[in-house]
Amino acid sequence: MRDAPPPIDDRLLTIDPNGRITLLAGRDRETGAIVFPAPNDAERFEEVTLPRTGTLWSWTVQRFRPKSPPYAGPDAFEPYAVGYVALGNAVIVEGRLTGAALDGFAIDMPMRLVPEPFTLNDGSTRLSFAFAPIGAAA
């Protein structure tokens, strides 16, 4: 993924030279609890990276255009899948689902983290993330 757009937020994910992304989280220094996204509190939370694979915990399909604001997507809305993916024993992360038909997802399906372009209101593109079934093309 050469010439990848910059991350949507440097505190959310990192991109290695091969275009692989990794999610960043925070581990509470007192309790060890992991939270995503990482809070902006370096005194209380240390930065940790999350596993790149997990299992689909729950999911649904967004079939109608969300209220705007905050939704700022195109007027020609297309349904999309969104779900919660359990990343090992670390944390459950909500994200967009890709790589399968809208009815092609299933609870406990093995998933992997994939890059997902995101277009801002000004037309510029940033890199975000999604989850795809393991074995699906990125």
Radius of gyration: 16 Å
What share of the residues lie within helices?
under 10%
Distance between the termini: 10 Å
Kindly estimate the percentage of residues that lie in beta strands according to DSSP: 35-45%
- Sheet with the most strands? 5 strands, mixed, barrel
The coarse silhouette is: globular
Average of the residue pLDDT scores? 89
Written as H for each helix and E for each strand, in order along the chain, the element string is EEEEEEEEE
The chain-level structural class is mainly beta
How many domains, as an integer? 1
- Low-confidence stretches are none
Number of strands: 9
- Spatial strand arrangement across the major sheet: 5-6-7-9-8
How many helices? The count is 0
Domain ChsH2 C-terminal OB-fold: 47-114
Pfam families: OB_ChsH2_C (PF01796)
Protein name: ChsH2 C-terminal OB-fold domain-containing protein
What does this structure look like?
- This protein is an all-beta fold and 138 residues long.
- The protein has one domain (13-129).
- It is built from no helices and nine strands.
- The protein has strands spanning 13-15, 21-28, 34-35, 45-49, 53-62, 80-87, 91-97, 110-119, 125-133.
- It has a five-stranded mixed barrel. Strands 1, 2, 3 and 4 form a four-stranded antiparallel beta sheet that branches.
- Strand 1 and strand 2 form a beta hairpin.
